Amino acid sequence: MQLLHAPSSPHLSFQSSKSQLRGFVKCSAVFAIDFSIKPRRDQSLIWTAHRRAIFSSGAARAASVEAGSSKVSTGTAEDDVLKALSQIIDPDFGTDIVTCGFVKDLQIEETLGEVSFRLELTTPACPIKDMFEQKANEVVAMLPWVKNVKVTMSAQPARPIYAGQLPAGLQTISNIVAVSSCKGGVGKSTIAVNLAYTLAGMGARVGIFDADVYGPSLPTMVSPENRLLEMNAEKKTIIPTEYLGVKLVSFGFAGQGRAIMRGPMVSGVINQLLTTTEWGELDYLVIDMPPGTGDIQLTLCQVVPLTAAVIVTTPQKLAFIDVAKGVRMFSKLKVVQQFGIPHLFDLPIRPNLSASGDSGMPEVVADPIGEVAKIFQNLGVCVVQQCAKIRQQVSTAVTYDKSIKAIKVKVPDSDEEFFLHPATVRRNDRSAQSVDEWTGEQKLQYTDVPEDIEPEEIRPMGNYAVSITWPDGFSQIAPYDQLQTMERLVDILQPAAQL
């Protein structure tokens, strides 16, 4: 197991999975905090000045792109430009920027040697956007007939893949990142808040949701001018408060402090706060999860389509045991495979980091060019890159090919690709409508499904399954694990290959 191994090191360690993730980024953290130092409040202007450039040091590491050959094609000027740009590979998708659809508004004045275009990225927080702009200028300028190149950068964040199935408040959030510890007092809220402001410093639109009703931390860690949530009486929605451009929602801002209530009530409050808030368009919503693995955590994991999860712990055995429970919870929910965490980030103990938790100003804001901020920059780069990769994999994991009348499956983080007969998938439904939940008796009979049945729509469901709509209106939830066990079509591609 590679999750944590720092029995004597008082360091904070983050790990985020890459090839072994099943749909989620996961980071583990070893963290120790000292709250003895007085807070610093005089550096917010420094962070404001640096928030757009906070990741310049990380961008150089994020990826390298070969410029390639400058040989001119024999086609049109547009072909020349697109061929040159296709030499630039997006390291997250493993595909060139032309194929990714990043190149927009291409305009060419061949007689004047002028070329202009826009690179539209999927997130304003892209850590290598400066590299993209530089390389695009270079490869196009190398064409013999080009005298002037103008590149404009923009971002059009992707909508949630399954937005139509979400509450209205979550439909315009591109990525949701959960920060969890399952053990109180290990620095989870510190990680959540500093990660959120790091992503904001990269240029992303960010919100923070404090899901701890019993002991909300967010009101202590940030200093919004308005410390009370407002209600839109007409829409019956919640208007979040804001601090330094980041939207904030916490039960601590509801004017009730810490709650005394039973679990089912808490789950209802959390669900209402999260789903009825007017978050607006966000690139990342960071959820500061409450400690534990009970009803509240399970409700959040099942209701919210998490894109990424961050696990935080201290090196002590007692804390690690509880954190391991949380990792297993995410694993059962198909968040991650069992403890597969390749990337490791270490954060040494810094008194000013713990002090910032009491000061109302996150450390990455107070000292945006310090050592702590640099480590959070590395984590932010990892989160952005993995979220982009995961979204691309999930969106194409299960599709229907009408030309061969087969369902194509390529599970995220797997090189295996296979085909299933639609009728086979439909007959293997395990829902209560097809199988008696008490007796296990098969209610859906083989002959109930016509052999020529075809799916009407296939949509991702979180990062672990797809929803398949059939002609009779039935919506089948098909987990990737179940699809992998079904009888496969072996020779289906052979006729097409002979054409």
Automatic annotation (TrEMBL):
GO terms for molecular function: 4 iron, 4 sulfur cluster binding; ATP binding; ATP-dependent FeS chaperone activity; metal ion binding. InterPro entries: FSCA_dom_sf, GBBH-like_N, GBBH-like_N_sf, MIP18-like, Mrp-like_CS, Mrp/NBP35_ATP-bd, NUBPL-like, P-loop_NTPase. Its main location: plastid. It is found in: Plastid, Chloroplast stroma. Residues 78-151 form the MIP18 family-like domain. GO terms for cellular component: chloroplast stroma. Gene3D superfamilies: 3.30.2020.30, Fe-S cluster assembly (FSCA) (3.30.300.130), P-loop containing nucleotide triphosphate hydrolases (3.40.50.300). Its cofactor is [4Fe-4S] cluster. GO terms for biological process: iron-sulfur cluster assembly. Residues 411-476 form the Gamma-butyrobetaine hydroxylase-like N-terminal domain. Keywords: ATP-binding, Chloroplast, Iron, Iron-sulfur, Metal-binding, Nucleotide-binding, Plastid, Transit peptide. Belongs to the Mrp/NBP35 ATP-binding proteins family. HAMAP family: Mrp_NBP35. This is Fe-S cluster assembly factor HCF101, chloroplastic.
